[in-house]
Design goal:
single chain; eight-stranded mixed β-sheet; 8 strands; globular
Length: 286
């Protein structure tokens, strides 16, 4: 046994490579991950409350878990990709479906939630010998399809190191942001800037169109300028599915720290009105 393996054992973390991965939530972001994991040779088992997802899961080379208990029993790492704080708490509470995960299991929370939520879940799980990290995903659905997501990961360094081969299946970039909860902070900051850019892009291109300039010509020019940004380069693909929820988390975080974020508050309201007519420049500002 080398020094690294000995250290992992003192932490209660099995030293062998991860082979069995469970994934909870085969939605827009979760389903592509199934195929990436299976193609890399992991034994993947998936659970979703929507049983119609079974065919898609099996078609991507993974097994379908009839219950969360089965998934828990067959996984060394569990990736959780559900929507909200409440769902996470229910899943991972002592009395929840995953309350009896085997000691040494690593749980990676892929969902975008309040940092406090993952910190509290981590403390409860640690009492049972289960290791929790938060591993948020950036760059959206197309990057999930391509396996080029950015993963922010918060948690114990040794646990993150063991998890890295799993994350690299679907992430082109992995950044260890620090202790548990910091990945959620990084994702909140990412979302604030992203939605600000999406709004600014709409306003700039709508103004140009009113003055008779081709918006696509301007977009190509701006990509060469100091106004360049990710959503400008990937114009037209963002569904804004989580915009309001993202900004609500930001506002909760700011309020708890006594921090006023006027632009973030305004952007939340703009996102609400923009979503049904996104990328329709003729309708923006009318």
């Amino acid at each position: 046994m080398n020094t690294g393996q000995a250290f992992l054992r003192t932490l209660g973390i099995p030293s062998q490579e991860v082979k069995r991965v469970g994934l909870i939530g085969a939605g827009r972001m979760g389903m592509p991950l199934v195929g990436h994991l299976a193609k890399r040779g992991f034994d993947v088992v998936v659970y979703d409350v929507d049983g119609t997802k079974k065919a898609g899961v099996e078609g991507r080379g993974a097994r379908w878990a009839p219950t969360l208990r089965v998934l828990a029993e067959e996984s060394e790492v569990v990736l959780v990709c559900v929507g909200y704080d409440r769902e996470l708490r229910e899943l991972l509470s002592k009395s929840g479906e995953l309350g009896k995960l085997p000691q040494g299991t690593i749980v990676a929370i892929l969902s975008t939630v309040h940092p406090r939520t993952v910190v509290e879940i981590s403390k409860m799980a640690a009492e049972r010998g289960v290791h929790v990290v938060d591993s948020t995903m950036c760059r959206g659905g197309r990057a999930a399809d391509e396996g080029t997501l950015l993963a922010f990961v918060g948690g114990d360094e040794q646990v993150v190191r063991r998890l890295q081969p799993v994350l690299s299946c679907y992430s082109a970039d992995i950044v260890h942001t620090g202790p548990i909860g910091t990945a959620q902070v990084a994702k909140a900051a990412n979302n604030m800037v992203m939605w600000s850019c999406l709004i600014a892009n709409h306003e700039a291109l709508a103004l140009a169109k009113r003055y008779g300039m081709d918006p696509e010509q301007l977009r190509e020019a701006l990509k060469l300028s100091s106004a360049d940004n990710y959503v400008l380069r990937n114009w037209g693909v963002n569904t804004m599915a989580w915009a309001e929820d993202d900004m609500e988390i930001v506002q909760q975080m700011a309020s708890e720290r006594g921090l006023g974020l006027p632009q973030a508050g305004l952007n939340r309201e703009i996102c609400r009105t923009l979503k049904p007519k996104r990328f329709k420049l003729d309708e923006y500002g009318v």
